């Protein structure tokens, strides 16, 4: 059934919504695809839902094609599995938590490694059951610190997540490669310009991880790439939230009121470079935002180690920065420590490879991001408890804090060919990851091998941002007039515009419009028919350009000469064709 503008649940807007800064957000709202409910939470209107379903279809096609099987987990999940994996703690403020009437803890799933692992444990028991790839297209929840740009970074969003299960590393390599190839087909079909970058280069115990970034100037990810050989790697410009409110337990003597002489972030960086040179010989640098602060640890024996101080939920990110693994089981929330007795402690976590067991005496400098009176502060103290540095947001730095400590940096020599690396930005659209045995171990997923011995299953996880893709496609496919959908994503195949005044004044125009609509549908095309009466041609044209269907057909004045107009939304090219030839020309 054709969609009719006269009755479609859609209202276009001439003005950009006040809260929308990036083009995709502005256009998706203006063209009637999405409506905001709350920050990072959006309603999909009929036209938007059609696009979302089209993205899902492409993803589903390609997952099915590699033999992955679709299932669906709930979004409302019990705490236990996430506690077993350590992520109930690690996620910190980043997940939505709730309680049932019995006061039991639940969460809204941010990603489902635990649930998939348990499901396989539940049903499978032998190596003969493997390999297995299962996936879902499902709504995820993350209490993002900065929901942004409409559905680009939502707090509720749709993700395709799949997981592979293999008996050995060779199997994992194969599963990973299958997914990688499927992702290339998915992103090609979605109409992206994208790069595949190494993620977390060198960290996470050598496990392999790659991201698919849609190239976009206002993307949140910064990556380096080699124009010579195509090598590309994410430089971890991940924005880590400084917690909105961290009650400061007090580090005696550590905090002093800031003064006009208080050092700036540049001072801090200079200080780190002078007194705490990085072990890898690179310099500390200040990124455009300040988030976690990295310092170098000096152990009692004089050895130095880079250290990130962060909130528990950021552990994974800091692991990347440290270039070392922090054992989840050993992560200790600092809240449990006695601050008064240990002036060197701050809120956060620390892993054994950083500090050794319980010891804290080696910490020389500590930094603690926190909020006082609505202002974000980053405070450091040295171990004698003297004031080190106080930074005030808005005065000393603009945003929330990072010192970038990437494995690869702009200007470095390309690891493959030696040419200088250049910098660019992108939007993370997909992420593939060789998990290894992390979750299988935490949740005890083992199967019997050929010799009847229990083996821990080896896993991979693979995500695509389905709802994010809708916005990212618009980022890469729009002009001054509106959206320009790639054909496979367009909510309909043809936007047919009848420019007559009303049925009594221009009966032929509307009759021809109806007839063409029927014929196009009979030929297998979906149609949005602008059958509105007493709406000016100008308004109809503007709407058609804003909405962005790739083929626009205009039935109007030229009908007197027996012709209609076919317009290509992307190129703007128009041609007149005889009414009788129209359908054949369009199909
Ligand atoms: P980001 O770095 O953008 O926060 P992520 O690394 O946290 O993403 P993953 O856990 O790798 O995300 O999830 C897989 C995919 O889900 C991402 O590649 C991205 O496309 C999508 N995604 C993640 N967070 C969001 C979000 N808040 N809104 C929309 N899509 C998201
Ligand atoms: Mg994230
Ligand atoms: Mg990411
Ligand atoms: Mg990711």
UniProtKB/TrEMBL annotation:
Q: Give the record's keywords alphabetically.
A: Aminoacyl-tRNA synthetase, ATP-binding, Cytoplasm, Ligase, Nucleotide-binding, Protein biosynthesis
Query: What subcellular locations does the record give?
Result: Cytoplasm
Top-level taxon in the UniProt lineage: Bacteria
Q: What's a Pfam family this protein contains?
A: HGTP_anticodon
Q: Which GO BP terms apply?
A: prolyl-tRNA aminoacylation
Task: Indicate the enzyme's highest-level EC class.
Answer: ligase
Q: Which GO terms describe its cellular component?
A: cytosol
* The enzyme's E.C. designation: 6.1.1.15
- Spell out the reaction equation it catalyses: tRNA(Pro) + L-proline + ATP = L-prolyl-tRNA(Pro) + AMP + diphosphate
| Every Aminoacyl-transfer RNA synthetases class-II family profile domain range | 35-486
InterPro entries reported in the protein's UniProt record: aa-tRNA-synt_IIb (IPR002314), aa-tRNA-synth_II (IPR006195), aa-tRNA-synth_II/BPL/LPL (IPR045864), Anticodon-bd (IPR004154), Anticodon-bd_dom_sf (IPR036621), Pro-tRNA-ligase_IIa (IPR002316), Pro-tRNA-synth_IIa_bac-type (IPR004500), Pro-tRNA-Synthase_IIa_type1 (IPR023717)
One GO molecular function term?
A: ATP binding
* Family classification: Belongs to the class-II aminoacyl-tRNA synthetase family. ProS type 1 subfamily.
NCBIfam families xref list:
PRK09194.1 (NF006625), proS_fam_II (TIGR00409)
The entry's free-text remark on domains says: Consists of three domains: the N-terminal catalytic domain, the editing domain and the C-terminal anticodon-binding domain.
Q: What does this protein do?
A: Catalyzes the attachment of proline to tRNA(Pro) in a two-step reaction: proline is first activated by ATP to form Pro-AMP and then transferred to the acceptor end of tRNA(Pro). As ProRS can inadvertently accommodate and process non-cognate amino acids such as alanine and cysteine, to avoid such errors it has two additional distinct editing activities against alanine. One activity is designated as 'pretransfer' editing and involves the tRNA(Pro)-independent hydrolysis of activated Ala-AMP.
**HAMAP family referenced in this protein's UniProt entry, alphabetically:** Pro_tRNA_synth_type1
Q: How does it assemble?
A: Homodimer.
Name of protein: Proline--tRNA ligase
Protein species of origin: Knoellia koreensis
């Amino acid at each position: 059934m054709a969609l009719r503008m006269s009755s479609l649940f859609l209202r276009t807007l001439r003005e950009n919504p006040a809260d929308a800064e990036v083009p995709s957000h502005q256009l998706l709202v203006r063209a009637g695809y999405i409506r905001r409910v709350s920050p990072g939470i959006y309603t999909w209107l009929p036209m938007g839902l059609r696009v979302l379903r089209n993205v899902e279809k492409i993803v589903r096609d390609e997952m099915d094609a590699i033999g992955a099987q679709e299932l669906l987990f709930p979004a409302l999940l019990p705490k236990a599995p996430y506690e077993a994996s350590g992520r109930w703690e690690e996620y910190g403020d980043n997940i939505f938590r709730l309680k049932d009437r019995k006061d039991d803890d639940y969460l809204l799933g941010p990603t489902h490694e635990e649930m998939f692992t348990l499901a396989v444990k539940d049903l499978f028991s032998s190596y003969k059951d493997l390999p297995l790839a299962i996936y879902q297209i499902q709504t995820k929840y993350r209490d993002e610190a900065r929901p942004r740009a409409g559905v680009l970074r939502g707090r509720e969003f749709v993700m395709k997540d799949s997981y592979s299960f293999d008996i050995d590393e060779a199997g994992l390599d194969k599963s990973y490669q299958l997914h990688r190839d499927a992702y290339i087909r998915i992103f090609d079909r979605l109409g992206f310009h994208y790069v595949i970058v190494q993620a977390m280069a060198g960290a996470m115990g050598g496990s392999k991880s790659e991201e698919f970034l849609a190239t976009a100037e206002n993307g949140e990810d910064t990556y380096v790439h080699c124009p010579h050989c195509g090598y590309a790697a994410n430089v971890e410009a991940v924005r880590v939230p400084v917690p909105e409110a961290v009650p400061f337990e007090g580090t005696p003597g550590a905090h002093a009121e800031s003064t006009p002489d208080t050092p700036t972030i540049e001072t801090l960086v200079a200080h780190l470079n002078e007194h705490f040179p990085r072990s890898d010989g690179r310099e500390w640098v200040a990124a455009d935002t300040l988030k976690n602060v990295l310092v170098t640890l000096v152990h009692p024996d004089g050895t130095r180690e880079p250290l990130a101080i962060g909130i528990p939920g950021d552990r994974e990110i800091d692991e990347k920065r440290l270039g070392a693994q922090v054992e989840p089981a050993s992560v200790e929330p600092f809240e449990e420590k006695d601050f008064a007795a240990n002036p060197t402690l701050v809120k956060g976590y620390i892993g054994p490879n950083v500090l050794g067991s319980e010891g804290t005496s080696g910490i020389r400098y500590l930094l603690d991001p926190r909020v006082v009176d609505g202002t974000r502060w980053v405070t450091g103290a040295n171990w004698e408890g003297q004031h080190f540095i106080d930074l005030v947001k808005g005065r000393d730095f603009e945003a929330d804090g990072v010192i970038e400590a990437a494995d690869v940096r702009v200007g470095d020599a390309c690891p493959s060919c030696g040419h200088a690396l250049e910098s660019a930005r992108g939007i993370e659209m997909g992420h593939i990851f060789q998990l290894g045995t992390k979750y299988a171990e935490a949740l005890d997923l083992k199967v019997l091998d050929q010799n009847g011995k229990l083996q821990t299953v080896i896993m991979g996880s693979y995500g695509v941002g389905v709802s994010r893709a809708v916005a990212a496609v618009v980022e890469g496919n729009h002009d001054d007039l509106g959206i320009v959908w790639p054909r496979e994503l367009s909510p309909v195949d043809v936007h047919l515009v009848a420019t007559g005044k009303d049925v009594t004044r221009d009966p032929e125009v509307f009759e021809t419009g109806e007839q063409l609509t029927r014929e196009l549908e009979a030929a297998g095309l979906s149609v949005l028919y602008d059958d509105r009466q007493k709406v000016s041609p100008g308004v109809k044209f503007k709407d058609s350009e804003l909405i962005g269907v790739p083929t626009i057909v205009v039935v109007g004045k030229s009908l007197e000469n027996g012709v209609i107009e076919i317009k290509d939304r992307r190129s703007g090219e128009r041609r007149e064709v005889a009414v009788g030839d129209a359908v054949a020309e369009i199909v």
